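Retro notes (design track)

What went well: tokenization of the new backbones is finally stable.
What didn't: we kept losing track of which sequence belonged to which structure.
Fix going forward: every design gets posted as structure first, then sequence, in one message. First example under the new rule, 174 residues:
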């Protein structure tokens, strides 16, 4: 059954169509997906595999708030990818330092922590708050407050910070 779904999925991809069963045969079911297959975007608009147009009120869960396929963003990304794709924080990256300086000068921050995802940012915030509470406030068991009906990421700490107990099942401390 699984190999049959995979073969249909490959055929659908080759024919430029979309078949949900084939998708589900390869991609873990970690989200309750809407029955829409998004194929492209322009600005704040999205189009599905049937050609229907939508306003993108989700913005990639706030990861693409500048919109889709904006010419200035395409130009900036193209220029950067031609120069340097990704370098670990093991090295000094001059433009990263320049960005950090700009952020500090235009915010309440003293320094900047660069990371790859919201989960990693939330994990760092939890760790920094706990470390500060231990070292500066001398608290043995600091309390981290989170909201109900929230989602903070898929790392162990951020799952336990998520406000719905159903997401905690199987991830409790030993």
């Amino acid at each position: 059954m699984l190999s049959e779904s995979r073969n249909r999925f490959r055929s659908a991809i080759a024919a430029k169509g979309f078949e949900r069963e084939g998708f589900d045969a390869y991609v873990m079911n970690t989200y309750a997906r809407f029955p829409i297959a998004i194929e492209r975007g322009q600005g704040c608009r999205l189009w599905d595999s049937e050609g229907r147009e939508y306003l993108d009120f989700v913005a990639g869960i706030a990861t693409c708030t500048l919109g889709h396929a904006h010419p200035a963003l395409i130009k900036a990304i193209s220029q950067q990818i031609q120069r340097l794709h990704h370098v670990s924080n093991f090295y000094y990256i001059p433009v990263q330092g320049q960005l950090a300086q700009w952020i500090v000068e235009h915010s309440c921050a003293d320094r900047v922590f660069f990371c790859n995802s919201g989960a990693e940012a939330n994990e760092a915030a939890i760790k920094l708050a706990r470390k500060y509470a231990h070292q500066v406030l001398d608290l043995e068991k600091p309390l981290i407050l989170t909201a109900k009906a929230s989602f903070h990421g898929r790392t162990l700490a951020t799952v336990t910070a998520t406000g719905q107990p159903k997401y905690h099942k199987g991830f409790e401390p030993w």
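Added context from the reviewer: The chain is about 40% helix and 5% strand.
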